[in-house]
Write a structure and sequence with these properties.
With about 400 residues, this protein is an alpha/beta fold. It has 13 helices and twelve strands. Bound molecules: pyridoxal-5'-phosphate (PLP). It comes from Paenibacillus mendelii.
Amino acid sequence: MAQEEKEGSSVYTTVSYDPTDTRHHGAISVPVYQSSLFAFERYDQFDAAFSDLFSHHVYSRGNNPTVEYLERKLAELEEGEAARCFASGMAAITSSIMSLVRSGDHIICVNQVYGPTKEFLGSYLSRFGIETTFVDGRDMVAWQAAIQPNTKLFYLESPTTMMFELQDLRACTSMAKSIGAATIIDNTWATSCYQKPLSMGVDLVVHSLTKYVSGHSDCVGGAVIGSKRLIDQLSHHEYMLFGGIMAPQIAALLTRGLRTLPLRMQRHESSGLIVAAHMEKQSYVRKVNHPGLASHPQHDLACEQMTGYSSLFSFEADQPVELLKEWANRLQYFKIGVSWGGFESLVTVNSIGGTQSHSSIVRIYVGQENPEDLIRDIDQAWQQIGQGSTQNSPL
Ligand SMILES: *Cc1c(COP(=O)(O)O)cnc(C)c1O
């Protein structure tokens, strides 16, 4: 092929910007590197990159510049040395657990842990000879009593996302350290804005970024943050081998989410407390589970280890679940849904103690709407079914 011909056709195909230009032409938002592959002109460059994969860009199941940008920010916010992003919170959780245990090991986990995490620990991992004991996370005597000679990991989630019970993070991490076990915490509820578990001795922090960090219910993602040593170990094994990586567009959306996270969390915190305090005054409510309320049995511990509160909480009522579902049907602002952290307020209703029970638990997610509108909404929906329950019962 003649040289002019080669150069002529390459105008269509060759990337025309200088890939070493770190200024991104002044772009104010993180550029999306929509590329699986990063190639080299010379073999010595290729060999150098391959010998230290995570400091270079070779292939996007390894290192993508857009994802890496988010990882650096998350590490900084959580006060950790390094972070890895994953395709979902569960990919981050399962990978980080797998990175710290092997066949024959024993794990102790808080019994109120996120459902799929409980299934992974309690049933899936037993296939590989890894057993888990679930304990009441509030009770340090229970943690101590569950310790076995082969206990290698404490798995925490504080607060838990249905009952909003806390674990004493400093007590748990010092107990784990005393037996040479590692600790992981799911910090999705508090976010890095309101709780810094690494500073309290936790080894790895995991997040579902799907919730508050995304903030707009438009992406699914997860992250693990910790020391460079633990993150490197996880990167070489679970990250590269399971391959549950985050795509660059998602990383760009989550990076955008981070810019407003502190502002959104302030609003969530104040609105959540307003709605929770309102629920506490309702005659049909037996108990509100929100660690920011003075009535929460672990409120003092919450003040010690968190600097703020997010807006997911629950209330318990001596009312049948069918009635509360009718209440949920009449809410205008609140939608019925599970995943939280987005704009819209949400509810879910569950029975406590079986289907015949007359006791229910309602999980409330307070979104970005005006909290006074949300309170009015809750009250109008209750009035509708309150009237209905004597005359034209909806049930
Ligand atoms: C949603 C959630 C997860 C799982 O995250 P995904 O992104 O859905 O995989 C884990 N832990 C908590 C506390 C969650 O709320």
